[in-house]
Amino acid sequence: MKIKDCQIYTYQLPLVQPLRIGNTLVTSRTGAIIQVITDSNLHGFGEAAPLPGLHQENLNDVRRQLKKITPLLIGTQIHNMFKVVDLLQMQNRWLPCVQFAVESALMSIAEESNLPNQKSLLPEPVHDKIYVNVLATGNASTILKKVEKSLAGNYRSIKVKVGRNLLEEEIKLVQTIRQKIGDRTTLRLDANRAWDLQDAVTFACSVKNLSIEYVEEPLKDPGKLPDLFEKTGLPIALDESLIEMSPDSFELQEWINTLILKPAVIGSVRKTLQYIDLAGNLGLKAVISDTFHTGIGLSFLLRLASTITKQTPMGFDTYRWLDDDILIDKLPIKDGCFDLMTVMNLSRKVNFSKLEKVV
Question: Which ranges in the chain belong to alpha helices (H)?
């Protein structure tokens, strides 16, 4: 089975509300879609959607690189596809979100094919329900309203962005949230490297009795994370730090609690799968986090999440920021989770009228 054609599309979708990433305000979501078609009429879709304020690349960079890559994929034998991908990458380093898009499109085709050894590229699902942690951002009033909605929606976990306001205000907010949710919901925090060691210690000591599941990247200087853990015992999750590491050189440290995996930032789906295996072998939690993809990118992330043995809510609440989708039907979240079979069925029904073909 060979790849007989590749098409590239772009999209622009409105957001339900503006999104602040670092110092960047995002009001709409843009990205590119690669469609890979085989000579047996199997279709695989991948999404390359650089997020302003997070990715270094932009949509123009993505479009240019995809236009160079797609002609080289045509004629490739499916059973040799990753050898071809690796060769192409050696010749021209791929942007992380482009690599994610191409690999996910190829893996989707491989999973649908009946060729020997192709299904093993993606481990079999171990869960058919993928739970979601609510993402609560904004001012205190907005966050508390989101917390109330999450309780009504039967969500199992809430993640709150911290490190943006006065330390005393954020400590009080986290205390209020824990009081509201009781023990019904786990509480995660994400500081995005906002604090120096002294402020982080103050925060950690103030919330130590609130059963915080973990805090993502609390320090401006990640080299001091061991010191923070030694002083406070704060459960720490790595996010940005993983981009600077490799699964092959990863060393277990007692202060590491959770690995936050963003495949579109890490780049390689295969590298993400290595981290998932690594977390399982080392007894760490692995949480896949979306970067505001449409249903095409998110559906593949949900498929990845279904392979994680230890079931834990994933960072997929980002999908609710989209006011529309390029799928005919949006992926439904019910009782705080996605149903994998429903997602896989809907992910194949693309609304091409929402896409603009790149020529």
Answer: 59-73, 81-91, 96-112, 140-152, 167-181, 197-206, 225-232, 240-243, 263-266, 269-282, 295-305, 340-346
Q: What angle do CA 121, 127, 130 make, to 5 degrees?
A: 105
Structural domains of the chain, ranges and CATH numbers in brackets: 3-118+352-357 (3.30.390.10), 129-346 (3.20.20.120)
Q: At 268, list the tokens.
A: 């390689």
130: β partners: 338
Beta carbons of 263 and 293 less than 8 angstroms apart: no
Note whether 13 and 31 are within 8 A (CB): no
pTM attached to this predicted model: 0.94
Say how many Å lie between the first and final Cα of the chain, rounded: 26
Neighbours of 155 (CB within 10 A): 24
Question: In the predicted model, is pLDDT for residue 118 greater than 60?
Answer: no
DSSP state of 176: H
For 263-316, write each residue's pLDDT tens digit. Answer: 999 988 988 999 999 999 999 999 999 999 999 999 999 999 999 998 899 999
